[in-house]
Amino acid sequence: MKYGYLYGLNQRIPDEQFNKIKDYMKDFRRKDFIDGIIKVTGRPEGYRCLEKDVAKVEEILNITNTLEKRRKKIEDAFSNPQSKRKLKDKSFQWLITLFERGGTRPEQNLSRLALHSTKIYDPDDDFKNHRDIGQGTLFIYTPHGMWYIINNNRMGDEHPQNNVKTGDGGAIGYRLMYDDNVDTLIRICSEENIYTGKKLY
C-alpha cells in the first residue's frame, strides 16, 4: 500500500479534541513499512493522517494556518522569479545554519549513503553539473537521517575537513535526524529536483 505523505500534529491536544479526529488518524509503527517495495522517508511513527484527510482534521481543530495556505504562500512566491530566488536563498541559508550548528559529522561513504537513500535532491543540478570539478551540493535522505553533502575536492579546498569518502576525492557531510521543518526547507531550496547525474555507487 502506498501512503504518500503522512501528517501529524505538532503539539499535544486534549483527549476530547483528539477523539473528534481519531477516525482520520492511524497509529503508525515502523513495522507498517517493512515491505521491501516501500521507501520510507522521515519518521512516520505515531498518529498520522493521510493527505486527503488533512483539511478535515484542520477544520475540526479550527486550525487557521492550514497546509493549503502554506502551500499557496510558497506557490505564490515561486510564481515570481525574484521572490522565488529570494525564498530559495533564504531557505538555503537556514539549512546551512541548521546543519552546521545542529548537525553531526560522522565518517561516511557517499556510495553507502546513496545505496541506502530514500531520495537524493540536487538543487539546480549543481552536483550533477559540477561534480567533475569538485563542486556541488546534495541533500540525501536515509532511514537514519538527512545529510547535507558539500563536494570538497577542488585543488585548494581544505581536504582535511572531509568526512565523506567519494570516488572523486572527498566531501564534507552534515547529518541531522529527520525533521519536518528541515524537510520543507530542503524541498523549497531544491524544488524537489532529484539527482540524475553519474551513478554514486
Per DSSP, what share of the residues sits in E-state strands of 2 or more residues?
15-25%
C-alpha Rg, in Å? 19 Å
Based on secondary structure, the structural category is alpha+beta
Question: Total strand count, please?
Answer: 9
| Biggest sheet character | 4 strands, antiparallel
Q: Number of DSSP helices?
A: 7
How many distinct folded domains? 2
- Trace the largest sheet across and list its strands: 5-6-7-9
Enumerate the spans where pLDDT stays under 50 for 5 or more consecutive residues. Answer: none
Order of helices and strands: EHEEHHHEHEHEEEEH
Outline the structure in words.
With 201 residues, this protein is α+β, with helices and mostly antiparallel strands. The chain folds into 2 domains: 6-64, no CATH class; 81-190, no CATH class. Helix content is 35%, strand content 18%. The protein has helices at residues 15-21, 54-60, 67-78, 81-102, 110-115, 126-130, 180-190; strands at 6-7, 26-28, 46-50, 108-109, 119-121, 137-142, 145-151, 164-165, 171-176. The strands form 3 sheets. A 4-stranded antiparallel beta sheet has the order 5-6-7-9. The chain has a 3-stranded antiparallel beta sheet with strand order 1-3-2, with no helix packed on it. The protein has a two-stranded parallel ribbon with strand order 4-8. The longest helix has 22 residues, at 81-102. The chain is globular and about 60 Å long. The model has no long low-confidence stretch (mean pLDDT 91).
